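Dear colleague,

Thank you for sharing your sequence with our group. We've completed the structure prediction you requested, and as agreed, I am returning the results in plain text so they can be pasted directly into your records. Please verify that the sequence below matches your submission; if there's any discrepancy, let me know and we will rerun it promptly.
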Amino acid sequence: MTSLDIDFVRAQFPAFSEPALAGLALFENAGGSYPCRFVTERLQRFYRERKVQPYGTFEASRLAGEEMDEARSRLAAILGVATDELSFGPSTTQNTYVLAQAFRKWLPKGAAIVVTNQDHEANSGPWRRLADDGIKVREWQVDPTTGHLDLATLQPLLKGASLLCFPHCSNVIGEINDVASITALAHEAGAVTCVDGVSYAPHGLPDVGELGADIYLFSAYKTYGPHQGLMVIRRALAKALPNQGHYFNGGTLCQRFTPAGPDHAQIAASAGIADYVDALYAHLGGPDTDPRQRGRVVHDAMRAREVALLQPLLDDLADRNALRLLGPRDAALRAPTVAIQTDTPGEALAEALAPFGIGAGGGDFYAPRVLQAIGIDPAKGVLRVSFTHYTTEAEVAQLISALDQVL
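Please find the predicted structure tokens below.
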């Protein structure tokens, strides 16, 4: 098999057999995906059998610690990084804030960093506030017509810069940025990179080792898991940055950027994401191989399914005169996160879709900078419809039919 079996996929998600959600076609996956059964089962087991202080000498405590370690080691292996290069935190927003405090002390006086105006505010605001301490903040700006980030405009900004922060994929533009090429350019200029992968990871966990990013962040709750932020920091940089955790944890790489006590149960449940990747790989019928390769195969299968589902929607929207479709019209170049602008505020459009069984979102989605940059009033916002590999062809057809009525 080379393509995902949608019946098998949906059978792994309790939401699709939940009577309370019957009839809902979820097109707000960019705001948070349904959790897979492996995650919910692990979370329930932890709360029932392991909800004690972990890493102790008695059985329940030992098992709790082992399950937390399992989540870190298995997910790191899929991501192509060392186990101790992966940290957990309460959210990606919080993780980014903690990182910014570390860089605040690490960057030399008068240093320069580069941010974009394509980002979700979580990967922009904390870095921009470093200007309060004399850090020079340069902005890599999007094309005002397309929202695209052009490599040609980045190169001058990198001269003398220490850090580049950018998204793998914008949560409103949807275009997938070439992380490997951007990171290579930054490294050539002597800068490290921090990549916001929140809007990309739900569409296939990336091989971070292959991408070359120094920091890669994403959210488990948008990747079929619990509400945790996952953060890869490559070893050399993690050791160089000042410790943000308890002083006695400074020698443990995966604890250096966790100031507060972690959520033990949710970390342990995150191993269910790895379970899900393995289940999909096994159902695809691939040969026995290592976790990194299994992750790559599942990533490609997810992307192939999403591209096939997305293109008809993009074609339909492109044929409508009364709206502006943000981002590329080629599904292969973007994630299935699709924002449109009309004369009607985005939130009102999302509300109008609800009676048709469509769960969508409207607003600025914490990305007012990019909306302003491309001439859209953030107060009016956009309608955003987003999905992932577990969406069906029938649900996409249901969305298009509902848009006919609403638009």
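Summary note from our side: The mean pLDDT is 97.

Kind regards,
the structure core
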